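Is this the right way to post structure tokens for a design question? Let me know if I should format differently. Anyway, here goes:
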């Protein structure tokens, strides 16, 4: 596995070593010893999976402290653009985002530490995303930022007219009007 720093401290891109032959392929999607050595100990407590069709945009989601979650995200099927926004108010990259294409072909993973909003948009006909989290869902601490916040200027890789978004996500506010409470 190759662990690469992104331009936003703490956000790590992971590229597994893939062993392919005429039968198919094999790779380790997660190895606690290797992960802990390269990122530090994270106690993942739950695995989530979501399947969506082209244009579905989920996010930008986060949980407020003390129920903030770290995530390890990868795409099992299809292709998505994955976005993480730095919400750590004392960070020099506060309010900046990082994007990466995650796909079943490239097998890349993104480690999103606590203190970030996270979301993705489906670029293929359909896609299945899987992610580990280190905290359980806490509905009273659930929050988010509107996907098209003009101050963030996120390029989601699809035309705005193709975006399919839930009523809950479409009712979110811009970062400037959202209590992030991360320091």
């Amino acid at each position: 596995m190759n662990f690469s720093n992104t331009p936003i401290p703490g956000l790590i891109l992971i590229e597994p070593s893939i062993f392919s032959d005429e039968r198919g392929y094999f790779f380790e999607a997660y190895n606690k010893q290797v992960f802990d050595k390269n990122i530090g100990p994270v106690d993942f407590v739950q695995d989530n999976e979501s399947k969506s069709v082209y244009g579905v945009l989920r996010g930008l989601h986060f949980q407020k402290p003390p129920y903030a979650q770290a995530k390890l995200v990868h795409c099992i099927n299809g292709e998505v653009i994955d976005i993480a926004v730095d919400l750590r108010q004392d960070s020099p990259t506060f309010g900046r985002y990082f994007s990466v294409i995650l796909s079943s072909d490239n097998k890349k993973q993104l480690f999103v530490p606590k203190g970030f909003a996270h979301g993705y948009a489906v670029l293929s006909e359909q896609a299945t995303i899987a992610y580990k989290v280190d905290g359980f869902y806490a509905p009273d601490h659930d929050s988010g930022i509107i996907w098209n916040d003009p101050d963030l200027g996120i390029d989601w890789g699809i035309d705005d007219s193709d975006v399919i978004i839930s009523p809950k996500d479409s009712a979110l506010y811009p970062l400037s009007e959202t209590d992030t409470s991360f320091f």
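Format looks fine. Someone answered above. Worth noting: Residues 46 and 136 are 7 Å apart (CA to CA). The mean pLDDT is 96.
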